[in-house]
Amino acid sequence: MTTGSASGSPYPTLQRGTRAAVVARLVEIVSLRHPEGLAQDHLDQVAVEVEAQLRATERLHRFDLTNADEPGFTMTGDSGGAR
Amino acid sequence: MNDDELAFSSVSSLGRMLREGVTSPVELTEFFLERLRRIGEPLNAVSMVTEEIARREAQLAEAELSSGLDRGPLHGIPYGLKDIVSAVGAPTTWGAFPDQQFSEEATVVRRLRDAGAVLVAKLATIEMAGGMGYDHPDAAITGAPHNPWDTTRWTSGSSSGPAAAVAAGIVPFALGSDTAGSILLPAAVTGTAGLRATYGRVSRSGAMTLCWTLDRLGPFGRSADDCGLVLEAIAGADPRDPSSLALPYHYSRRPTRSHGFRIGVLAGACDGAQPAVAENFTTSVEALRELGTVEEVELPDLPYAEVADVIIAAEAYAAFDDFIAAGRTVELTAAKAHGHRLAGAVLPAHDYLRAQRIRRVITARFEELASGFDALVAPSLGQVASPVDERFEYMVPSALGRPLNYAGVLAGSPTVSVLNGLDGDGLPTGLQLAGGRLQENAILDAARALEERLGMSRLRPDGPRGTARPRVEAPQHATAGGTA
Lengths: 83, 484
Known about the structure:
Chain A is mainly α. Chain A has a domain of 48 residues. Chain A contains two helices and two strands; from the N terminus they run H-H-E-E. Chain A has a two-stranded antiparallel sheet. In chain A, helix 1 packs across helix 2. The relative contact order of chain A is 0.19. The model of chain A has no long low-confidence stretch (mean pLDDT 86). Chain B is α/β, with parallel strands linked by helices. Chain B has one domain: Alpha-Beta Complex (Amidase signature (AS) enzymes). Chain B has 16 helices and 13 strands. Chains A and B meet through helix 1 and helix 2 of A and helix 10, helix 12 and helix 13 of B.
C-alpha cells in the first residue's frame, strides 16, 4: 500500500440506518457528559455536527497511509519537544 | 491633500509625510481617532478606541522622530488590533466577554511598539474568532460589522473588524488572525490586502488560541506592500511561542519587478463562482500574462476540507475544554455555537491523528507544486460580500476558491489576497496568491506587480454609510460584468 493511492481500506462504510444509530449513541454520550442537561436544540446541533464528523472521518479512512506516515507534528530529540 | 486622501494613504506614503513634516504622529493619531469614532463605531468595526494608549505612543513617536531617532517604516503610524490579541491597558474581549483583561501583552503588540507604531483601537471579531461555530454575521458583542463598500453587506469573518477598519480608512493597517481563512476571506470582500504568512513567522503569544497547529496572525493593509512592511516588523522567533521560526524575515524593498514571474493558475478555479468574480479573475490572469509565464495547474485531489475540519474540531475542543465542560457555550450569541463544538467530545484521537498524518502528505504535495512557481492563483472567494443581516453559507465548494485556501492553511504556507476588481454594484472581488513555505517575498512581489498593472489602489468606498461606489473611474475591466 502506498500513501494516497486508491483505497482498499477495510474501514466500514456506514449505511444510512447504521449511521443514524451511531449518531444517536454518540449524541447520548455527549449528553451524559453534560449532567447539567442540554436543551433539545443544542442536542440537535450536536447531532448535525456528529454526523458531519462521521462523514469527514470516513473520507479520511479512504485515503491510504503507510504504517510509517507521521502526523504533521513530530517529536524531536534536539529541541526537547514537538515540532 | 484632503482628509480623504490622507485616510486612504499607504503606510509608505504616510511615512514620507511624517518625515517631510506634512503631518506628525500626534496629528495623524488624532485624525484617525476622530475617524474611528465618527465612522468606525457606526460600522460596528470597533471593539474599543484606545485613546490613552494612542496619545501616549504618538507623543513618544513624535519626540523620537523629531530628535532623529527613526524606528523604520511604521514609526508614528496608527494601527488597529483584532480583539483576540491582548494589549495591556485595554480589555481583550475575544468578541464575547466585555470585561476580560490580560496582564501579559502579546508579542506582536510589543514588536509594533518597538517599531514605533501607534495602537489606536481594538477591532471587532466574531466571538471567540468563530471557534465555537457561527452562521450569522452578528455573532459578536459589537454586532455585525458593516462593509464600507455597501453597508447592507458584511465584511465576512472572523477578522471582520480589521477588514472593515482598513477598508473604511479608519486605520492605515490592522492585525487579524487566520485559522482556516479568517484573513483571506474578509480581505477579499472588503477590497483590502490580507497576508497569512508562513506558519511560525509571527508569534501568537498573547493571542487567543483556537487551533495550535493552524492559528496564524497577520496584517491587513491597503496593498501588498503595506502587508510586507508590517510583516517585517512583527516576524521573528519568540521563546513564548514554541512554533515560532528562528529564521528572520526581511521584506524585499526592491522596485517592483515587472516581468519574469512564473504563475500557476488553478484549473477550474472559477467553477461556480459569481460571474463578476470569474470575469475579474480572467482579467487578472491576462494581466499576469504580461508579467511572466502563466500555466494552468491541477491542485492534487486530496481531502483538504475534511482534514481541516477534523483538526479544528479536536484542537478547538481541547483549547476550550474547560469552557465547554462548564456549559458556557450558551453564553455565546450564535445559536450554532451552543452545540457545535460539543461533537468534539466524541471524536476519536486516532481520527485526529489520521487527519494530521494526511496533512503531512498534503503539505508535501503542495510544496512540490508550489516550488515551480512564484505564486499559485485563484479567486480568494467565489462571491462578493453577503448581506449583513442574513445567514451565510461558505461551505459550497470548490467554486469558492476554498481548495487553494485550505491547501495553504494546511501546508502552513503563505497566501496574500489583493483587490482585483469590482462587480457591477461596486463590491470588491479578491485574488489570492499562494506560495511555498517562506516564500512571502515571491508572492508579495507578484501581488505588487499585479496591483500596479490593474491600478486598483485608486479604488475606495465612497463614504462611511450608504451604498458605496468607486471614487474614481475604475479601469474598464474592473467594473465589467457582475451579478451581486
